[in-house]
Amino acid sequence: MKEIIADWGVDKPHFNKFFNTMLDALGVGVVLKNDSIQIDNSLAKGYVDFFPFNNGIALVRIGILFAEAINFKRLLESGPEYYACLFSLKEGIDMHVFDGEADKQEMNGLGLSGKHSVLYFSSDVQSLFRVTPDEETKIVILVFTSRALHNIFPYSTNSESSGFRVGQSLKGYSNKNAEMVEKVTDIFEHESVEHIQSLYLLGAVYQLLAVLFLQIEADRELLKQSTGVVEVARMIQIRNLLIADFSNDCPLLEEMAKKAQMSATKFKALFKKLFKLPYYQYYQHYRLQGARQAIILGKSVSNTAYEFSFNSISNFSVAFKKKFKVSPSEIEVQSR
What is the pLDDT of residues 60-80, one digit of tens each? Predict the structure, then answer.
């Protein structure tokens, strides 16, 4: 498997190094145009856009179709000079942070694996993301220094996310919620004149960071609320498995209870307590959110209904309209 060791950072010199790395790895057809890398050859087609905001914050937007699986690793810094947060629109992109070879397959205390989450880490921690061939890779990477947040992000000794502000070494996974997916999609789809686009994207970066920090705190609270930390971690892992793949029918509650190593009655009660919705309603909520996102991104209503395992287009349309007060065909027309 091809491996690309990339140099990320918050400034143009780092991005230029990243371009040279991509050129060496992918060869002819990799061109740097202003702050964008354009790729068009037999190995890959797509782009990497770089938006430096001159305040210790940068945004990297990646949209590439690779012809083969590739591992992207990051060059390590000697200390936590900056932080990076990776948000992917594709579940097939496998993301990890680790300290060494033995730690590669880790799941954090919340039971989150790289395919079901957002990745965040400081520059002194190794990271990797693996892309699937013949499926477009769509990733947003936020890169920032701790100083960039110093005047806008209040410090709290009780806050899990305050480490970003005070320059601590950090690594972890967070749940990728619907609001994050919506904001990342917006970053990919937004178009405006150049000077306004930078202002708009900077606002989107701050919003996305705020949503991420809120999710990190929410995950932490789940662990604090229960003395059964292992049980809560299992439940979060089960929840992530539940909403990772909608191509088949919803797994039976009893089957998931067995995976969580508890009775169906206990599983049912604990699931609702932790995630605020009953098991099947929770599945349906994220199933329909995913279907709506697929239509917005250009998939047809019929293909979406099939992909999200509805037994007919009419059943899909009824469920969709009941939730969103608008039909999927109307969303399809608006997204053209």
Answer: 999 998 988 888 888 888 878
